[in-house]
Design goal:
33% helix, 36% strand
Length: 98
Amino acid sequence: MESTVDTIKIDLQTVGFDSSPQLAEQVKSELNRLLRFRKDIVAADFYLSEDGSNPQTNKLVRWRLGVPGNDLFAEARTASWSSSLREAGEKLRRQFVD
């Protein structure tokens, strides 16, 4: 599923399940949080999958940000989509500061 926030192209891919409008809104919300720290983001790719049998760690989010220079990447695995998105977003934000 492709969409945009401001001028940022978002590519949301889900594996093994269908994306819901609520999940798409969570993705956009987390991207908007990062925009407070960095304005030169041109693309965001999200890869979401459910894997493993442990319900505490079966929501995997891989997130790539297209920025000038080298792209940034983070991933997180937790029990919910919102916490996985938030954790991956925090990992990306720390890459801005470093």
